[in-house]
Design goal:
Blueprint (H helix, E strand, L loop, with lengths): L3 E3 L4 E3 L6 E5 L6 H9 L7 H6 L6 E9 L9 E3 L16 E10 L7 H8 L4 E7 L7 H12 L4 E7 L6 H15 L9 E3 L8 H11 L12 E8 L15 E8 L2 E2 L3 E12 L2 E16 L2 E3 L1 E2 L5 E5 L3 H4 L8 E3 L8 E10 L20 E6 L2 E10 L3 E10 L6 E8 L2 E10 L1
Parallel strand pairs: 3-6, 3-7, 7-8, 8-9
Antiparallel strand pairs: 1-2, 4-5, 4-6, 10-11, 10-18, 11-17, 12-16, 13-14, 13-18, 14-15, 14-17, 19-22, 19-24, 20-21, 20-23, 21-22, 23-24
Helix pairs in contact: 3-4
Amino acid sequence: MVITEDAGSERVELKQPLINIGTAGHVDSGKTTLVYALSGVWAARHSEEQRRGITIKLGYANTMIMRCPVCPEPERWTTSALAPDGKCPRCGSPLEPVRMVSFVDSPGHEMLMATMLSGAAVMDSALLLIDATAPCPQPQTREHFKALEITGVRNIVVVQNKVEIVGRERALENYKEIKAFLEGTFAEDAPIIPVSALHKANLDILIEAIQKYMPTPRRDEHKDPIMYVIRSFDVNKPGTKVDDLKGGVLGGSIIQGVLRVGDEIEILPGAKIKEKGKLKFVPLQTKITGLRSGDVPLKVARPGGLIGVSTELDPALTKADAMISNVVGKPGRLPEPARELSLDYELFDTVVGIVKPVPVERLRVGEDLVLNVGAARTLSKVTHVTSDKVELKLLLPVVAFKGSRVAISRRIANRWRLIGYGVVR
């Protein structure tokens, strides 16, 4: 049976996910454990992540949402990971594939907020995880929630995790804390689902909520393609002969449009080259030689999931994530990389990523700020500022689209803290 899903302008064979569902929340809230329970993929794959037991880089995990044609709501909902034999765990009926989704697992540690912001830039919806054993909100819960707000992620399901550890009274108290935290925000009516990610309890109710509150976005495939690069690889093993070398691979999420095998693409700001002791960026053009979503080869790649783009680039340029923060598009159709930005901006009332929130002070000429522009991050210096507009000089160039949102962070107590956002003028 060929499974199809509405991709906006046509129904397409479902070989890749068409929606990115992010995870957000304080460190140790169980984000990676929940993604594993739903997808069967441990998204924290890097050796340093496994050694330290925390997520450091963005992780992706795809899974198919499945439906039993016999069981009632919500028991009918499961995933391919929870039912690997394709049969309903309750009644044994053959399951119906509904849609493939991709989870974007982001780190919760305060030192890794920049990585979370890069993830938020490619999220269509988000699971906000709350640890039922701890008071809500925790500092990074506030910060992650603000990140979702300023990047425009509005479809939220709150996951009250670790309920198996607490008693009924604490679970209800935590529920009231969550409601109070969300009151008056865009997510005040978001569903709150109590689960045990570790024991895979209540996941059917969570999957039902994902289906109800997280629709697959409708895309215009006729728009020029844009892809944010968040990984890059050299897939050649040491000792590979020159004639057998494969070109560099870019990993990222397509934001709009489609990419096809054989397309000519441009990569901006480009490769970092040191010349006479100075860092220089060289724009690149190349051809797509292959596309993959997970282990599935594609002829056409659409927005959704982590897409691997094989190219004719020298693999030395792409090894060890060297191409992170680049943007891929059609040659001549991307904005020129900017060394200066002008923003309409708005500051938060308080700094949200610390235990005791403090007021956000006004921006000052000459101060350093960190900007997250799409999936890119750069240090900047304020050159001119009014009550609602700011001009900045950037240390590293970025591709910035007019009207796009930019996260603004200031160094407070030896950490870069999220203090507001801007819109590119």
